[in-house]
Amino acid sequence: MDFGSILNALILGVSIASIWLIAALGLTIIYGAAGVINMAHGELIMLGAYSSYMLQYYLGVPYLLCIPASFVIVALVGLILERGLIQYLYNRPLDTLLATYGVSLVLMQGVRLIFGSDPKYLAVPEIFSSNLSLGFLSISTFRVIVLLVTALLVLALWLLFYKTRFGVQVRAVMQNKEMAASFGINSSRVYMLTFALGAGLAGVAGSLFGVLNIVLPTMGASYVVQAFLMVVVGGGSLAGSVVASGVTGEMQSVFAFFTNDTFARFLIFVLIVVFLRFRPQGLFAKAGTRR
């Protein structure tokens, strides 16, 4: 054990945190703004990966353009889903949970019927397949790209929700929908746009995860658990998800350094359960109660 190895573990923890955070961003927006427990979030991530695959394989679109294109495609899917189903289930959390779980099965089986169950792969520029080395530090170039994309998305979301008229409307609807309506804010439109935004963010995550791992119809399930944990621990807020992802990512990397990855995940889950036992509202409680 030396200082270089520990520092490498800490850098890897930042990378893990960025992966968990970008998986949780869309879910944070949907749950925080509309109170919807979206069980289809993992499948929206999967759709983002398959969108990038289709754009590359059939249209020859460069990978860097596939990322924003996946956002648009999956956001449109989210918009259709919200208008066709979710809008009738607000304030009915159990019904929403069951309905979105059903949607997740439909999406998964639909993709399996169209593309089959064999793994697909996304091609990236050769520079993204190398490692960055600085002295005793070494990290995958693409993981750095994921970190940068995550940081840019967090900044963009903060600006959107705290520096724009739309953000004021979203926060007003979150705190008191009836009072917001009395000021002329269309809560139905706010819910529709935030759901589409959250779905689009899941699409971006899928486009990135399709490079880190193989593209499969079931790939979303491996990310949705961590995404839900980050949202719950963070209290359903953007800042909470950022802090929760950072802390848990670093803890998993350090625990894995001293033990192994499986035992590190076990410890993380145990600590999260203990934390929620004493603070069920999460790190940052919401500013108001949704009505």
Automatic annotation (TrEMBL):
This is High-affinity branched-chain amino acid transport system permease protein LivH. It comes from Starkeya nomas. GO terms for molecular function: transmembrane transporter activity. It is a multi-pass membrane protein. Keywords: Amino-acid transport, Cell membrane, Membrane, Transmembrane, Transmembrane helix, Transport. It is found in: Cell membrane. One of its GO terms (cellular component) is plasma membrane. Its main location: membrane. CDD domains: TM_PBP1_LivH_like (cd06582). One of its GO terms (biological process) is amino acid transport. The chain crosses the membrane at residues 7-37, 57-81, 93-115, 135-161, 190-215, 227-247, 254-276. Belongs to the binding-protein-dependent transport system permease family. LivHM subfamily.
